[in-house]
Design brief:
CATH topology of the largest domain in chain B: Rossmann fold
Helix content of chain A: 25-40%
Order of helices and strands of chain A: EEEHEEHEHHHHEHEHEEHHEE
Distance between the termini of chain B: 51 Å
Strand content of chain B: 15-25%
Structural class of chain B: alpha/beta
Shape of chain B: globular
Shape of chain A: globular
Strand content of chain A: 15-25%
Largest sheet of chain A: 8 strands, mixed
Largest interface: A-B, 44 and 45 residues
CATH architecture of the largest domain in chain B: 3-Layer(aba) Sandwich
Number of strands of chain A: 12
Bound molecules: adenosine-5'-triphosphate, adenosine-5'-diphosphate, iron/sulfur cluster, magnesium ion
Number of helices of chain A: 10
Oligomer: heterodimer
Strand order of the largest sheet of chain A: 6-7-8-3-9-10-12-11
CATH class of the largest domain in chain B: Alpha Beta
Largest sheet of chain B: 8 strands, mixed
């Protein structure tokens, strides 16, 4: 095949270039995100893993420009070839809930308590697609059926508080899918659910993602959730991605000492009678931009070279990469 | 202050609970009349053995925390009896154990590490508070607080004078554990003690709990929705569903040979870390039903794939499967009238 006939690589659905977010208030500065580069292909599921405070939610919110005004955002955010940071307010309103939608841990942050579920979905459809009221209501019913809410027709008239936790989560997903987004952002949507309900919602999201061909960025601190749903994972620590790669090889053995520690300290299988491996210490304060490996104070492998500068992202082969001087390029 | 001592010998259960019941009335209407009743804990019986860790699992709302609050007598029983090392709890008679003496021997640690500490007290004072109330001098109580801080891995010189907001979640939970140990209890009830912590911190606290139990000769009741954590820490496991015990037994029996369909579904709902073993079908559909008006007969029947007529007609009794392994399902009881009764159940998880 001649070079001229080869297709160019498809443009990514989402691309973050050197994204940084700083919160500056009178008495303190928080460097929440410090130079994140990330790509998502169409129809791909990326899990962002990390402990609380590592910058997962701030990264997602930056993508939708949902951060407070005083947050300073630098770098590039591109979704479906459009520069998100350059959008004006009107374009942004179309973009949110149109091309990109978001679901949260607490469904009541996304659902309005004073309107019925059917009305809320129809509202989104009318606003974004200019559909008639009747068409929008028909679509709302379709969506409730899509997210497998039993007796969907009756549930159109239900208020959010009349639904159980699992059903509310499904209703929120229905609202998010109302305009067939290309990109779904999910911030720990199953963290507050029972395992029996969590697995139902994860299977539903996976099925919908495949059926609708959406790209999904799924934030979680739970390795098991990533194991069930991710194509690729990105691990964040102190506002940076420290490891990224396909989920299978990652779960079999992470490259970077931080996710290695995270995996070892997660209780799984029969570990009774064993002393659990822990990561000593706590994550660093984010009051200044780190100038060396942020993990070094807690890392058993740390050596003087780790303090020389922020370790570069090393390509380890097979689509895997990590920010640690011990990783060999492959 | 007398140390809390063993009385009945190792074979006598530390705590024997029979028919524990707690119903919460739901008030409504114009005159605040009772419109419904939440049967949060509904005839629960089990023993807590000396020196063991008994894990309690079950979905949200099944009555785990209510059971815990009954055990520490933060809530009064509607019905049932509690016998602590041979003595009936709360009986005014000479044979009984007064509530005040019982409370000294049974302490609790909650999930929310922040809400359970006084924000205006340095942590040392929070820990020393109860010993002082129970008659220790100021200096003795402070001495004990510092010993306990050291025991939970918080260097007293560095941490004793800090306030709760100056600590991380993991550190605050260590303080709560120290405070629970301040009266030298024999039994500690831990309600989701690590659920709010990050995994690396969770592992630190779990290791600590295992150490402390050994060091201070404790017995634990450990409540969690994380089945992996419960398997790690427990000797025996109790499974609750809608206010009732559906299965109890040694940890290996419950995890390797679960007999109740609900226990199996719970175990099968754990996400797998290995993407090669992803689930394709959810083990259970729907949410747990409301404990107002629970189903007749077996309460699990509305979600059980094996339910038959008998399951609606008759409440299953606990069948003894040997080794202290009990399951309340008609399939486990020969002659119950269920078509699969007595048949060896295939364990497929
Ligand atoms: N004070 C109360 N008044 C009315 N209902 C209550 C009260 N406390 C608990 N309940 C109800 O009793 C049932 C059992 O609650 P409980 O807190 O024991 O559940 P749990 O098993 O600890 O759940 P979770 O896993 O969510 O902590 C629930 O339906 C709950 O809503
Ligand atoms: N609105 C805000 N103002 C100030 N700091 C914030 C704000 N939102 C988040 N942060 C800080 O940014 C850091 C990253 O937070 P976040 O992305 O929410 O973490 P997580 O990985 O747990 O989702 C934390 O230190 C957090 O306290
Ligand atoms: S760069 Fe050094 S300190 Fe950082 S993770 Fe690698 S070995 Fe540890
Ligand atoms: S008694 Fe019947 S409904 Fe209940 S768990 Fe057993 S088979 Fe299922
Ligand atoms: Mg978050
Ligand atoms: Mg509870």
């Amino acid at each position: 095949m001649s070079a001229a006939l080869q297709m160019p690589p498809a443009a990514p659905l989402m691309k973050l270039t050197d994204l940084s977010v700083t919160f500056q208030t009178r008495d303190r500065t928080v460097h929440a995100v410090n130079g994140v580069n990330m790509e998502l292909a169409e129809g791909e599921v990326l899990c962002i893993l990390g402990e609380s405070g590592s910058g997962k939610s701030v990264t997602l919110r930056a993508l939708m420009r949902l951060l407070p005004k005083f947050a300073k955002v630098t770098g590039g955010i591109e979704v479906a070839g459009q520069n998100v940071l350059a959008m004006n307010d009107r374009r942004m309103a179309d973009f949110r809930g149109g091309e990109v939608a978001m679901i949260f841990q607490e469904p009541m942050t996304a659902l309005d308590p004073v309107f019925t579920v059917g009305r809320q979905i129809a509202e989104v459809v009318q606003r974004h697609e200019g559909a008639s009221r009747a068409t929008a209501m028909a679509r709302a019913l379709e969506l409730l059926e899509l997210v497998q809410i039993p007796s969907a027709k009756r549930r159109l008239d239900a208020y959010p508080h009349e639904l159980s936790g699992g059903l509310r989560q499904r209703a929120m997903i229905a609202v998010a899918l109302a305009c067939r987004p290309k990109l779904l952002l999910a911030d720990e949507p199953t963290t507050a659910l029972d395992a029996t309900v969590q697995i139902q919602v994860l299977l539903l999201l996976r099925e919908l993602q495949q059926r609708l061909g959406m790209g999904v960025i799924f934030v979680t601190h739970d390795l098991g959730v990533a194991g069930e749903i991710a194509d690729r994972v990105a691990v964040m620590y102190a506002g940076r991605v420290v490891e990224e790669g396909p989920v299978g090889p990652f779960m079999a053995g992470p490259l970077h000492p931080y996710p290695q520690g995270l995996l070892n300290s997660t209780v799984h299988g029969n570990m009774r009678g064993k002393v659990l491996t822990t990561i000593p210490g706590a994550p660093p304060s984010l009051s200044s931009v780190p100038t060396s490996c942020s993990f070094s104070p807690r890392c058993a492998l740390a050596e003087p070279a780790c303090e020389a500068g922020v370790p570069a992202m090393v390509e380890a082969g097979g689509g895997r990469r990590g920010r640690c001087i011990k990783i060999t390029a492959g | 202050m007398e140390p809390n001592q063993d009385r009945g010998g190792p074979a006598q259960p530390l705590l024997a609970l029979r028919g524990l019941t707690k119903h919460f009335p739901i008030k409504g209407g114009l005159f605040g009349t009772t419109v419904a009743t939440v049967r949060a804990v509904d005839g629960v019986s089990f023993d807590v053995l000396k020196g063991e860790t008994l894990g309690i699992v079950g979905e949200s709302g099944c009555g785990k925390s209510t059971t815990a609050r009954l055990l520490v007598q933060l809530l009064g029983l509607d019905a049932g009896t509690m016998v602590f090392d041979g003595e009936a709890v709360g009986e005014p008679r000479a044979s009984g154990l007064a509530l005040r003496d019982y409370r000294r021997q049974v302490q609790m640690v909650f999930q929310d590490s922040y809400a359970s500490l006084n924000p205006r007290l340095p942590i040392e004072d929070s820990i020393a508070f109860a010993p002082k109330v129970h008659g220790l001098s100021e200096s003795e109580a402070n001495e004990r607080a510092r010993e306990l801080l050291a025991a939970v891995g918080l260097a007293p010189a560095q941490f004793a004078r800090r306030y709760p907001h100056e600590l991380s979640g993991g550190q605050r939970q260590r303080v709560n554990i120290a405070r629970a140990l301040a009266l030298q209890p024999r039994l500690v009830i831990l309600d989701e003690p690590v659920s709010a912590l990050d995994k690396s911190v969770e592992a630190q606290v779990l290791n600590l709990l295992v150490d402390l139990k050994q060091k201070f000769n404790l017995t634990f009741v450990f409540i969690s929705h994380d089945l992996n954590v419960v398997q790690f820490i427990s000797d025996r496991v109790l499974v609750m569903y809608l206010g009732e015990v559906v299965e109890i037994g040694p940890v290996d029996a419950i995890y390797d040979r679960p007999a109740h369909p609900y226990t199996r579904a719970l175990l099968a709902s754990r996400p797998s870390m290995d993407p090669a073993f992803r689930r394709t079908v959810p083990p259970l559909v729907g949410d747990p039903p409301n404990p107002v008006n629970p189903p007749s007969g077996c309460r699990f029947r509305t979600r059980c794939g094996f339910a038959e007529d008998v399951c609606a007609a008759k409440k299953p009794v606990a069948a003894d499967l040997g080794d202290g392994h009990l399951a309340a399902c008609h399939m486990a009881t020969p002659g119950s009238g269920h078509s699969k009764a007595g048949a060896i159940m295939e364990v497929a998880i």
